[in-house]
Specification:
six-stranded mixed sheet
Length: 573
């Protein structure tokens, strides 16, 4: 039977046009995912070797050398706190779990312990946060606003990437505070925040597990607990009081499961020390050493400290203080003021029941998280520093994006009575693009200025490229060495990069220690901030070693930052 060729081409053409239409429909959503990831990769690749490694940017990841290679270095491990003698639960203290360590292990196992591998780890963590922010915005605007959700998600994610308080902060000790935000944002997604769908008990349990992991990873995420309870309470609305209370139970069970490594770690400490009373005494002494409470007294100073740190974070000055030891920010206060104004206006408008419940509930939930962190942080006063507040940056831009969505609805409603719907939409979204572009450009300007100073100086003080270069030089030595670093700020970087070739000891290099280390024919290095008061000749005489020529490690401007004294002995003990 013959078939007309024209009849065959019609379904082919219609199928092609359908695929083109589908591609056009999915393109905005795809761009909202791909473009921020590319921008984040560029932000981390930009001057990727500077300013090197920060101590708490790889805390507890520096223990990976011990976990994978069994390096002999001294570790900040609590008594009995390593499962199977190699897998730590806590690192340094009970307020810091090892989640980040295990997250990084697959990457360093494949790429090695080097700075480039660490930038890959930071990119993956940042990329997950960006994707979760995009998902939360998409959930809120819903399928009816698919293209608008894609545009707003793209703008919010790019604004977050452009802000040095996020992308540059990942290179500093703020990484330890930003990392658990993956779990918190994931918990919000699992709870279907921004939708009008009841999450159900399974999702409540899963959300609790993720939140518990976030709190175990770093204690500051416990500051979000009141807001999380509010979100769970709101998700059961308008159920009767008793049922809303029951809806909290699955989440609390999940939170206990997620936080269970903390319980395990405490049990291991008590077992190693011989009982609960001994563990309590040990932890009390540790608390006194760490100065957990605020250093200032009085209610007003406790309020002022969080506000000051929060301000330094959102205007971009804190991260430049960390890297450059001086504030470098372009229109930082303007960017912070515009963002704060938008969030306040969006929150006030969300109280107006005219809006879709998704808009109102999502905005109020994110604002509640920001407020909860700020209010509870008053208990800690000045014990919390700027890097702790970096955890708020993804929530900050999420709140700005949701506020703009609400404000756009108001603008659209005002214009719709006088203009065509298409024109009203165009005006509303043009306003959104203009505002977010302005915020992002200010952030990018601050980032450009900071990178200019980074290239000039290589970083500042302890946290410089010089530390990384020193570690690489130790790694290249033909024999294993012993490194004494009186300032613990050097130890983690050296352990991360050179832990398989050096025994890094966080202590002073006394004559007895230098003698004992040099007796096994190992070169001994004592590292200190320049200028050091160490008398190398006197130490060599007391330790019966020979002092080697002193080395100075400089920043890019040629200013000495680190002083290294080497000692050798050819006489075995």
């Amino acid at each position: 039977m013959l078939t007309n060729s024209a009849d065959v081409s019609v379904p082919r053409l219609s199928g092609l046009s359908g695929r083109i239409a589908t591609a056009r429909r999915l393109l905005p959503s795809g761009l909202a995912i791909v473009v921020p990831l590319v921008a984040m990769a560029w932000a981390l690749w930009w001057d990727w070797g500077r300013p090197g490694l920060y101590m708490d940017a790889i805390n507890p990841e520096y223990l990976g050398q011990w976990v994978l290679h069994g390096s002999p270095s001294t570790h900040s491990l609590m008594p009995g706190n390593a499962l199977f003698g190699r897998l730590p639960v806590f690192t340094g203290s009970v307020y810091h779990g090892s989640t980040q360590l295990y997250f990084s292990l697959p990457f360093v196992a494949v790429f090695g312990f080097n700075l480039a591998a660490w930038r890959v780890v930071q990119f993956v963590a940042a990329g997950i946060m960006l994707l979760l922010v995009v998902r939360l915005i998409s959930n809120t605007l819903g399928p009816a606003r698919r293209r608008g959700a894609a545009v707003l998600s793209l703008l919010a994610a790019l604004g977050l990437v452009a802000d040095p308080a996020f992308s540059l902060a990942l290179r500093t000790q703020a990484y330890s505070c930003l990392f658990p935000m993956m779990f918190l944002l994931g918990s919000l997604v699992v709870l279907r925040l921004g939708t009008d769908t009841d999450p159900g008990w399974r999702r409540r349990v899963a959300a609790g597990v993720l939140y518990g992991l976030a709190a175990f990873s770093y204690f500051i995420f416990l500051l979000f607990a009141p807001a999380m309870l509010f979100i769970l309470w709101r998700s059961a609305h308008p159920a009767p009081l008793l049922r809303r209370l029951r809806c909290l139970v699955p989440w609390l069970v999940g939170t206990i499961i997620g936080y269970s490594p903390f319980i395990l770690g405490m049990f291991l400490i008590a077992r190693a020390l011989g009982g609960i009373s001994q563990a309590r005494q040990y932890l009390a002494g540790l608390s006194d050493t760490l100065h957990v409470g605020p250093q200032t007294t009085g209610f007003l100073p406790r309020i002022e400290a969080p506000i000051k740190n929060f301000h330094y974070m959102i205007n971009g000055e804190w991260v430049s203080l960390m890297i450059l030891a001086k504030p470098v920010s372009v229109w930082g206060d303007v960017r912070a003021a515009v963002g704060l104004t938008l969030i306040v206006v969006g929150f006030l408008l969300s109280l107006w029941r005219r809006f879709d419940a998704r808009y109102r509930h999502a905005q109020q939930a994110v604002v509640a998280l920001l407020v909860s962190f700020m209010v509870v942080s008053v208990l800690f006063g000045d014990r919390l520093a700027g890097h702790h507040f970096s955890a708020l940056m993804p929530l900050w831009y999420l709140a700005i994006a949701l506020s703009l969505a609400i404000i756009a609805e108001v603008v659209r409603g005002l214009c719709a009575s006088r203009l065509e719907l298409r024109v009203a939409n165009r005006i509303a979204w043009s306003a959104i693009v203009a505002v977010t572009a302005g915020i992002a450009l200010c952030g990018l300007g601050s980032q450009v200025a900071a990178h200019r100073e980074i290239r000039r100086s290589g970083g500042a003080l302890l946290y410089s490229q010089a530390v990384t270069q020193l570690a690489v030089s130790i790694e290249d030595l033909p024999t294993h060495s012993t490194v004494y670093t009186p300032d613990w700020g050097y130890g983690m970087e050296l352990e991360f990069l050179a832990g398989d070739k050096a025994n890094v000891v966080f202590a002073n290099g006394t004559p007895a220690r230098v003698h004992a280390s040099a007796c096994v024919n190992r070169p001994v290095a004592i590292i200190a901030t320049f200028p050091s008061a160490l008398d190398a000749a006197a130490l060599a005489a007391k330790s019966m070693t020979a002092a080697q020529p002193r080395q100075l490690w400089l920043n890019d401007a040629g200013v000495p930052l680190i002083q290294v004294d080497w000692f050798m002995s050819d006489r075995p003990c």
